[in-house]
Specification:
The protein is built from 2 helices and 2 strands, in the order βααβ. It has helices at about 10-20, 45-55; strands at about 5-10, 60-69. A two-stranded antiparallel ribbon has the order 1-2. The radius of gyration is 12 Å and the shape is globular. About 10% of the residues are buried.
């Protein structure tokens, strides 16, 4: 089955929760970029910029995921 790497920009506490629970919690609410959901990027640098510049996390952390389709 084909797969690709994708990246999720978040903060350190959220990244630790994702790794411990092995699940993501969707962002909810009208202020979300593209609506409710979980946001991934194909490019590591874009995920990093998302965490630092858009979400303004001082401790931006990237979670790497191998997604199969």
């Amino acid at each position: 089955m084909p797969q690709f790497q994708c990246y999720h920009g978040t903060n350190r506490a959220n990244a630790e929760t994702i790794r411990e629970k092995q699940e993501f919690q969707p962002s909810l609410g009208d202020e979300q970029w593209l609506g409710d959901g979980i946001y991934f990027f194909e490019d590591y640098k874009e995920a990093l910029l998302w965490g630092k510049k858009v979400k303004k996390y001082s401790d931006t952390t990237i979670v790497e995921v191998a997604h199969q389709y």
